[in-house]
Amino acid sequence: MSEAALPIFAEGLEKYFGSGDDLIKAVDGIDLRIETGEIFGFLGPNGAGKSTTVRMLTTLAKPTGGVARVAGFDVVEQADDVRRNIGVALQDAAIDPLMTGCELLQLQAVLYGLPKSQHRIRANELLERVGLTAAADRRVGTYSGGMRRRLDLALSLIHEPSVLFLDEPTTGLDPMSRISLWEEIQRLNRDGTTVLLTTQYLEEADHLAERIAIIDDGVIVRKGRPAELKAEVGCPTLFVSVPPDSHDCATEVLERFGEIRPSPEGSLGVGLTEGPSAVSAVIRQLDEEGVQVRNLELHEPSLDDVFAEATGHRLEGASDTQQIDNE
User: Fold this and answer.
1) pTM value?
2) Averaged over 14-39, what is the pLDDT?
C-alpha cells in the first residue's frame, strides 16, 4: 500500500523540547506504517514518548522534524482535514462535569457539523453502544472512572471517523471495566475502524493488537506481531529471589543454565536454555551451594521479555507470571 493510502504514516518523526543543554528529545525519529483496519499497539512506560507521538499525529502538537500523514493528510499542512477524519480519546481529556452524557454528545455533534436532526439520534446510538443509556441524563461528575472512559470513546466516535486514537484508554479502570472497553474496541475494529492504541499494559497490547511497536526513551526499539516478537526471545525466564548476601553465588549458579536477563528489583533472572525442565536442576544446585531460595517465578516468553531484551530493563508493573513457591 502506498504511503498516501495508509491510515497512519510517519517517517523520522521528532519532537524536541527546550534547547542547548536543556534539550529534551521526547520523540527521536520514529517510523510508523499502520494498515487499514488494523489495531496497532504502541507500548512503553510512562514518559517514553507514546502520548507525545499521538499528540503530533492528531495535530495537537507540531513535530520538530520528520513527516506524518493521517487519513491521507499531512498533519502540519492539512491539519483541519486530519481532524475531520479522526477520533481521539486522550488520557487527559477535559469533560465538563456539570453536563450530562447526552448533552456532551450533542455538543460534540454540533462541533463536527452534523445535521441538527441527527444530534439526539446519534447521541442515543452511541450511548447505547458503550452501555451508558441508563446514565444518559446524569451529570458526568457522577460517573465512575469506567463510565467516563466509555463516554470518552463515544465522544470520539460522533462523526464516524475512519481512524481512532486511544491514549491509554483503560488506565485506572477495574478489570471488568477494562474487559468491557476491550470488547468495544474490537467491535469498532470489526466494523472497519483503524485503531492506534497506546498502553503501558502488556496484557492489553497482547490481547488487542495485531502488531505493536515498543518505544523507550523516544525511540522505537522493537516492532512486529506480538507472537513473533515473543518467539524471538526464545526460552522462558526464571526469576529467583535470594538473600542479598547470596546474590553473587546465585548468579554464578544461574549462569550455568543460560544467559542472565534483566529482572525486577530484588530478584535474579536467567533465560533457561533447556526450558522449564531445568527448574529442578537450578533448585538442586542452589541448594548444594547453600543458597536459600525465597521464591521462584517462571515466565514464558512475554512482551515484557521482549522489552527487557531490547532495553535492558523491564516495564514497571509487568506481572504475568507463573509462581513456584519454595517453602
Assistant:
1) 0.79
2) 93
